[in-house]
Amino acid sequence: EIRDLNELKNLKGTYIYARFKEPINNLVDINGTICEADDSQITVQYKEKTRNKELKIELQNIAMIRHAVKF
User: What is the pTM of this model?
Assistant: First the structure.
């Protein structure tokens, strides 16, 4: 589990699992790769069926985030 959200700036390109406090686009959690990170939000690239999509997540909306294994 990533405890300090400030670490996310150094984890670009890392595959992660994140669970949200409030759903975003009807998603309660997500598996994806961190594309960008700044002080207030991160951008995660994830697959929805066969399409690659990007999602901007506010840091205040992250309930839990951890490293994940990509299969």
Answer: 0.89
